[in-house]
Each structure stands twice: as C-alpha cells, then as structure tokens.
Design goal:
Blueprint lengths: L20 E6 L6 E6 L4 H14 L6
Antiparallel strand pairs: 1-2
Length: about 60
C-alpha cells in the first residue's frame, strides 16, 4: 500500500463480531437441557443460569 509522503494511509477493516457465550446444564437421566446466552461469562451469568434452573425445578433438588 502506498500513500502520500507524511500522511497515514487509512485501511478499512471489518468491525469486530459481537461475542456471545453459552452457559448450560444437562439432566443426564432425562436429557433435558437449560441453556442461556449472554454477552459476558462472569459470576453474574453463572448465577443467572442457577436461577433459571431453580425456576424450572421449583420442587426438586438442584
């Protein structure tokens, strides 16, 4: 690539893709799955997964 002396050449680049993370759990005896997707994978997202499991299985041990 060339450009005028003393000037920086701007090269267009594609934008970065938006990352998504999937967190999930599987009940091995029934095959039932619970999956959530989030933009981050932090403690808050793991807590969201656990809350979803508790919501789906209110009368069972999680």
């Amino acid at each position: 690539m060339w450009g005028p002396v003393g000037q920086q050449v701007m090269i267009p680049t594609p934008t970065q893709p938006t990352r998504r993370y999937g967190l999930g759990a599987v009940n091995w005896s029934t095959g039932e799955t619970v999956v959530i997707t989030r933009r981050h994978k932090r403690r808050r997202e793991v807590a969201d997964l656990l809350e979803e499991l508790l919501r789906k299985h209110r009368h069972e041990t999680v």
